[in-house]
């Protein structure tokens, strides 16, 4: 059986939401939202089972002041939830995990955990916060006929997409760790070996 996902973000009053995150049975509301779309899409939407139509709340929150405290660190949605407009919530969570894996290689001294978590926070917060802000800005409704706003948004996308998709967080974080170790002196070798060590090649930051 084929499954089709049709997503649309709309502003809703609280009366449309139930108490559950997985709020179902909103077929009539869906058809109302899409009433001005192409008739072929409407015919397709009318085939949906009412119980399969769900209304989800999108939560937006400002970046936290800190994502780490002592020996505790957050990553992914626990650190900063994203709106879905450019699909970067999961991507930034993966980048967080890559950063953690680079900054905490096997054999990390437990005494270094607080310091390395601060390094992780410094390494990730700026980039994650910037992408979060861009995602939020793309979700703002444009006024009909506001050509300047559309041009500005397209220019932002042209600027940010290479920044978003042309980044290797493991290499970036490994380089930050290397600099951090060098600043501390010869306490431990400033060598960062990544998942490619089995092939005998060291990843370069």
Report what the structure shows.
- The protein has 205 residues and is mainly α.
- The chain is built from six helices and four strands; from the N terminus they run βααβββαααα.
- The strands form two sheets. It has a two-stranded antiparallel sheet with strand order 1-2.
- β3 and β4 form a beta hairpin.
- α3 runs parallel beside α6 (169-184).
- It starts with 22 loop residues before the first strand and ends in a 21-residue tail after the last helix.
- The model is unreliable at 196-205 (pLDDT under 50).
Summary, kept brief:
With 205 residues, this protein is mainly alpha-helical. The protein has helices at residues 27-33, 39-45, 89-103, 113-138, 147-165, 169-184; strands at residues 23-24, 54-55, 68-69, 72-73. The chain contains 6 helices and 4 strands, in the order βααβββαααα.
